[in-house]
Amino acid sequence: MEHQQAGNEGATLSQRGRSFIKPKNVIEQAFDECSKNGYDPKKNPTGIINLGVSANGVMFDVLKDKITETGFFDSCTIDHFNYFGGMDDTSHAMAAFLMKYAGSVKPIKRENVVVMNGLTTIVHCLAQVICDEGEGILIPTPLYAGFISDLNVQANVSICPVHLSSEKGTDGTAFQLTVALLEKGLSEAQEKGVKVRGLFITTPHNPLGCIYTKKELLSFMEFCKRHGLHFVSDEIYLTTIFGAGKQAVSALSIEENPLDDDHFHVLYGISKDFAANGVRIGGLVSWSDSVVKSMNSLLTFNQTSGLACYVFSKLLLDEKWLEEVFFPTNRRRLLELYEYTAQFLDTIESVSYIPTATGLYVWCDFRKVLDEPTFEAESELNRRMMKAGVALNPGGGFWCKEPGWFRLVFATHKEYLKEAFDRLRGVLST
């Protein structure tokens, strides 16, 4: 008997089920194309080189050497549900790691850390815990594109954009976030009838690559305090710093934090700092008993694997290996790749970029390349890049209000970058 598709898509689903069916955005579409036709210098030399996904592709050898050491798995047990103990070890390890590398001024205990299968899940669950359906979260744009689905698909929480401008601000940088802009974004959301419940920031920032200062973070906290909002700092790139003398400022390190425990939350995961996008471990740090209890009630449905917890609990606590092997190797390799990328971009007269010292990407200005200053023209340039076999992420996918910006991920093998840059140069010369 043949299975027949109902004529009306989703006709057999609940109203809730039908609401989950959403068209893929431009970034998700590009990811699908790269997955189906990915570049390989030997097996598929005409495939698409993916410089869109923010993944560190140059540290697997170091991780492999570590986890294949004799005795690494001697005490590993995976015969129980993580909910009943496995993730407690990971919560403890993440707490200890953040005490050292985030410089937390307040003791972080394992009961202050909720671990789930990735920050996508943490954001999705936290949104439901602090917001009712239809309520909103302020997020500066350009934003991390994953927030769009994390907040909207099931949680049905609105993103209230705080649009930033490429015009240089008072600090001399483009896309500067100020309290005045936060106030404007809040007012605009309220005028639309949206009840705003919190502010999400990312630092170091994705896709801008900037690091918010202590003064800036404190001003954002004071804004949240004034309006009774939750302050959520996503710090997944905390140690992905390759610029000499540069260091991220964690919200956890600010002694003058004016927020009470119920309104202050920090996110951390191992995907970026540990070059492990495929290992789904994300954590929420919060001293709010009610938030932690509510998040813990969702753990049964969102556990990460016992094997992943075991591996990265050990790595997070191996300070000697981190300080002597992993971090310096990662910084050296990323700096070399960033400088190689910057040298290429410097040769393209029509393209500029925002210098960075953090992250896995560069925020690039292709506005001079566009036929006209529209998102349609941005999409057309993106199609030309994809046709030439190189994928960058267009700014429209990050809700950037100015067409022509693209995120270029450089954390891949140099020979891949060379081929991608050759293809990109061909696109820009036509």
What does this structure look like?
With about 425 residues, the protein is an alpha/beta fold. The chain has two domains: about 20-60 and about 320-430, Aspartate Aminotransferase, domain 1 (Alpha-Beta Complex), CATH 3.90.1150.10; about 75-320, Type I PLP-dependent aspartate aminotransferase-like (Major domain) (Aspartate Aminotransferase, domain 2, 3-Layer(aba) Sandwich). The chain is built from 13 helices and 13 strands. The chain has helices at about 15-20, 25-35, 60-65, 85-100, 120-130, 145-150, 180-190, 215-225, 290-295, 305-315, 320-345, 375-390, 415-430; strands at about 50, 115, 135-140, 160-165, 195-200, 230-235, 265-270, 280-285, 350-355, 360-365, 390, 395, 405-410. A seven-stranded mixed β-sheet has the order 2-8-7-6-5-3-4, sandwiched between helices. Strands 9-10-13-12 form a four-stranded antiparallel β-sheet. Strands 1-11 form a two-stranded parallel sheet. β9 (about 350-355) and β10 form a beta hairpin. The longest helix is centred in the C-terminal third of the chain and has 28 residues, at about 320-345. The N and C termini lie far apart (about 55 Å). The model has no long low-confidence stretch (mean pLDDT about 95).
